[in-house]
Design a protein that fits this description.
The chain is of the alpha+beta class. The chain has seven helices and five strands, in the order βαααβαββααβα. The chain has two domains: 118 residues, 3-Layer(aba) Sandwich (D-Maltodextrin-Binding Protein, domain 2), CATH 3.40.190; 67 residues, no CATH class. Helices cover 46% and strands 18% of the residues.
Length: 198
Amino acid sequence: MIVAAASRPRCLVVATGLTAALWGAAAVLVRVAAGQPAGPDQTLVRLCLVALAAASIVFSGGGEALQALLSGTVQLSSGTLAPAFPFIKSGAIKGLAICSEKRWPDLPDVPTMLEQGYNDFVFETYTALLAPAATPPEVVRKLEAEVLAILARPDMRALLAKSGFDVRAKDGKDHMARVAREVPMYTDIINQAGIKKL
């Protein structure tokens, strides 16, 4: 592991006709049905299915899912923020929640799942730079230092932010601590969902 570079927050978006009040009512239903606050053991999809008794539609990718929301084929979708961002800004769809630790700077009115009472509900896609296991430690240290310096540059941070990334550069040791926290969490989610190994 060389460095963790950036993350892309996920978001929950709805067709403009599905109001925040309905989202709030659905959230209450989920909590009551579960007997506890919904947390990291429930994905956004499960949350929405339980709350709204909706059908799950699997798309080949986020672009197709977003297009279905824009066309009215579906009323609710979750995915990475970057492709949905311009449509949220224009009012074509409504952002209900950002699944990161903090609000997205350019969407100050869209709360996080944490702010809405879903403790530990952070679901982001992140990017890391890895090296083969046999890479000499001095090479790893040099690459780590260079990448961290590049990611600290304001122009690079601005470019990545424009592409939907939240730059949170961490060295390899810090990143591996994240991996150590997340592997058991996702193992538990996979087991609870009954997902079979491929």
